[in-house]
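Section 3.1: Structural characterization of target chains.
Under the original work plan, the team committed to producing a structural model for every single-chain target entering the pipeline before any wet-lab resources were allocated. The record below documents one such target. The sequence was received from the expression subgroup and is listed exactly as submitted; it comprises 98 residues.
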Amino acid sequence: MPASEDPIFDASPSVIAHMNEDHADANLDYVRGLGGLDSATSASMRAITATAISLIAQTPEGPVELQLEFPKPLSSPEEIRPALIQLLGEARKASSRK
């Protein structure tokens, strides 16, 4: 799907800025819990689309880029926050099982 046809395209810059400025801990939880990067020391969101978030994690071995898919594609900007919260819950649950 071309970026301009993505239903959350227009909202993505502000979401990325908000996540990186106010929720660095959540970004780190995503890469550790769902990305399997237990050694990550920090992470930042690079992109968000209707289907996934893209992050870059800083690890002792160097930066690692990864993409985490949403359980189902988002159809509107109003679905972003609940989808990120759901993904965060899954990430934290996965981390607690390790």
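The CA atoms of residues 6 and 62 lie 31 Å apart.
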